[in-house]
């Protein structure tokens, strides 16, 4: 049987690198028509084949991270193009190992230009939620009508994928900064429509958001929910244990359907004690059952932080 080759271009942040590599492993473990080709990873202002680095961005604000990655990846398109030409295309043109796709992290949308130049089918591996993808796809339409970033005085937004109007104060702070986060995410949202999206979620978890995405507009790209993809090594990284996991699942099984709110603020989502107290107070007043993944703020790198899970 002839093998087919996929190229993965992740960004070297643990919250993006781990899921896309887990997807690659899942794919190649289950479908023997694919051959494993080491991912191309942008790292330390060079391009490597098959490396698994991490990039220290935790001294930067979340707003600057978007700007940094946009500029960084854009400046490395020629390196990725050369790596594909020199290391991948020779096998593909010989008809022995056909190249069937370029799978990009959403921070790597600048590499869409490389795929188009080399006539490679393009896929986006989106590590976040369907709801956040809805927001990203909404930004270009909103900007075409309004022409500027969000402002604190803006009314609530009707965003496809969200069950109700979204208060302006609930939007991420980088959407209010024209010259850093907002313009970067606006550009990402435009480029998403040029690819097919592999979404790290599942229909049972985000049925409303996925249905809204499918019905939103003919300009919405093809979307394939295939998650959630969670590496087996995560229990070590986040200091969770089988007994704790079993306790959580047992508790969830005894709750009424659609009655639990799950909170997880991602790999950079640590809070100091006053913030945690304020969030906990609001959650308590809401009256909802909840499962909360809490990351302790140790003042160190994320990989040295600990993560605890609580159910109420």
UniProtKB/TrEMBL annotation:
TM helices/strands, residue ranges: 120-139
Annotated GO MF terms: UDP-glucosyltransferase activity
InterPro entries (alphabetical): UDP-glycosyltransf_plant (IPR050481)
Protein family (similarity comment): Belongs to the UDP-glycosyltransferase family.
Source species of the chain: Durio zibethinus (Durian)
Name the record gives this protein: UDP-glycosyltransferase 71K1-like
Superkingdom as given in the UniProt entry: Eukaryota
SUPFAM superfamilies attached to this UniProt entry: UDP-Glycosyltransferase/glycogen phosphorylase
Signal peptide as annotated in the record: none
Keywords attached to this entry: Membrane, Transmembrane, Transmembrane helix
């Amino acid at each position: 049987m002839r093998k087919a080759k996929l190229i993965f271009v992740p960004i070297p942040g643990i919250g993006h690198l781990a899921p896309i590599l887990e997807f690659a492993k899942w794919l190649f473990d289950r479908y023997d028509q694919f051959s494993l080709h080491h991912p191309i990873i942008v790292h330390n202002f060079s391009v490597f084949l098959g490396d698994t680095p991490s990039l220290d961005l935790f001294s930067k604000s979340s707003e600057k991270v978007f700007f940094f990655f946009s500029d960084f990846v854009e400046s490395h398109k020629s390196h990725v193009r050369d790596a594909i030409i020199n290391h991948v295309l020779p096998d593909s043109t010989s008809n022995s190992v056909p190249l069937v796709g370029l799978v990009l992290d959403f921070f790597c949308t600048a590499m869409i230009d490389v795929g188009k130049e080399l006539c490679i089918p393009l896929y986006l591996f989106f590590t976040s939620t369907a709801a956040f993808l809805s927001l990203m796809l909404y930004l270009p339409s909103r900007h075409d009508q309004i022409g500027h970033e969000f402002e604190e005085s803006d009314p609530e937004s009707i965003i496809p994928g969200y069950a109700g109007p979204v208060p302006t104060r609930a939007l991420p702070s980088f959407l209010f900064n024209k010259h850093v986060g907002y313009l970067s995410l606006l550009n990402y949202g435009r480029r998403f429509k040029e690819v097919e999206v592999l979404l790290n979620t599942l229909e049972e978890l985000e049925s409303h958001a996925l249905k809204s995405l499918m019905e939103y507009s003919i300009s919405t790209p093809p979307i394939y929910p295939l998650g959630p993809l969670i590496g087996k090594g995560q229990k070590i990284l986040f200091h969770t244990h089988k007994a704790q996991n079993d306790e959580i699942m047992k508790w969830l099984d005894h709750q009424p359907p659609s009655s639990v709110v799950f909170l997880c603020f991602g790999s950079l989502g640590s809070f100091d004690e006053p913030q945690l107290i304020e969030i906990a107070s609001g959650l308590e007043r809401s009256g909802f059952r909840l499962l909360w993944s809490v990351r302790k703020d140790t003042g160190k790198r994320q990989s040295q932080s600990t993560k605890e899970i609580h159910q109420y």
